[in-house]
Amino acid sequence: MRAAALTVVLAAAAALAPAAPAAAQQLVTSPAVRAHLQALDAIARANGGNRAAGTPGEAATVDYVARASARRGGRCRRRP
Predict the structure, then answer these.
(1) How do residues 13-66 score in pLDDT, each as one tens digit?
(2) Phi, psi of 4 (to 5 degrees)
(3) Which terminal CB of the chain, N or C, has fewer other CB atoms within 10 Å?
């Protein structure tokens, strides 16, 4: 599952790569980062404080990152 999470993160980053640096800077704001950190913390708390590879917390994290990427037009592909 670690590879799946990494694939999702890399795909999300690649979706932003074509954006001009100024456009990318507008997407990364303190409130947005805080919201993602809070969501990831909530995932960990819902899974016994854990988002480690091979756990349900990791699967929930991969789902969250895939959804967040898709909302911004990113395409994610999960690999086993």
Answers:
(1) 555 555 567 777 777 888 889 999 999 999 999 999 999 999 999 999 999 999
(2) -65, -45
(3) C
Q: What does the domain layout of the chain look like in residue ranges?
A: 2-71
43 Cβ contact partners less than 8 Å away, ≥ 6 residues apart: 51, 57, 60, 61, 64
Residues whose CB falls within 8 Å of the CB of residue 21, separated by 6 or more in sequence, listed in order: none
Residue for token pair 């990494």: 6
**Contact yes or no for 14/75 (Cβ under 8 A):** no
What tokens appear for 25 in the block? Answer: 């800077």
